[in-house]
Amino acid sequence: MESTTLAAALREAAAILAGAGVPTPAVDAELLAAHLLGESRGRVKALAFTDAPVPPGYPELVAERAARVPLQHLTGTASFRYLDLLVGPGVFVPRPETETVAQLAIDAARSAAVSGVTPKVVDLGTGSGAIAASLATEVRGAEVHAVELSPLALAWAKRNLDPLGVHLLHGDLRTALPEHDGTFDVVVSNPPYVPEDAIPNEPEAAEHDPAMALYGGGKDGLELPLAAARTAARLLKPAGYFVMEHAEVQAGRIAALLAAQPCWRNVATHTDLNGRPRATSAVRTAAHT
Q1: Is 61 left (phi over 0), alpha (psi -120 to 50) or beta?
Q2: How far apart are alpha carbons 141 and 152 in whole angstroms?
Q3: Are 267 and 241 in contact (CB under 8 A)?
């Protein structure tokens, strides 16, 4: 890049990123500049109408983004609902579609609170802590727990969740929290669910998201999602609420498997922001697992 003004640099960066196949080149160009300037994206757009200079390091960041390094790894943050989370190499970058899953868990926790209960909630496989952080900040008085197995992801989750008072556990979602069996009002999970032979299309995911956070186990990717469902059945109170994210192609299979078990009722499939079947919920019966 040889531009000397911010406006010209933004135009050149957008062209470079578009040529590299980045889905939102102009937005990413502005966000990279905003990161370096310590300003909002709106402020960057305003500065582009002046003779503002190019911030130092901008061409290098644009080149890394053109190489499909995730934007969030370059800025160190990811937006999720009302939060800016700290993220980087070693942790799954939270996606917009997961915000729908978080909303379902938040609504269920708020319903429990209306009944005079201090809602007790756990996020199984918390990753960066996105869902747990949303619950802690959006459900007044909730007791929020989070479980993560990856040491790298756990380090990022700790930075995001410790200030919010979330109880973070380094553990396996398959065996976590036996001392809390039958005590939770809500269990939510965005477990790894990609089938073993399905490689993500986006280079950002395929090359930078940790495999441990992507692949659910088995040809259908359902080993960890079904393990999360078993753990949820163990942890929930009767009438407790479970919701889990999954791939759209897994929706029918997961709903059928849960509906066939006496420990679940009111099994429902939920669509994401793009109208795709992205999550399944169920209510715990009084039956044994």
Answers
A1: alpha
A2: 29
A3: no
Rounded-to-integer distance, Cα 213 and Cα 157, Å: 14
- Would you give the DSSP letter of residue 93? P
Task: Write out the two tokens for 101.
Answer: 């899953």
DSSP label of 95: -
**Claim: this prediction has a pTM higher than 0.85:** yes
Instruction: State how far the Cα of 160 lies from the Cα of 103, in Å rounded to an integer.
Output: 19
Please list the pLDDT of the chain residue by residue as tens digits (289 residues): 677 899 999 999 999 999 999 999 999 999 999 999 999 999 999 999 998 999 999 999 999 999 999 999 999 999 999 999 999 999 999 999 999 999 999 999 999 988 778 999 999 999 999 999 999 999 999 999 999 999 999 999 999 999 999 999 999 999 999 999 999 999 999 999 988 777 787 888 877 878 788 778 888 899 999 999 999 999 999 999 999 999 999 999 999 999 999 999 999 999 998 899 999 999 999 866 5
Q: Which helix (H) or strand (E) holds 31?
A: helix 25-37
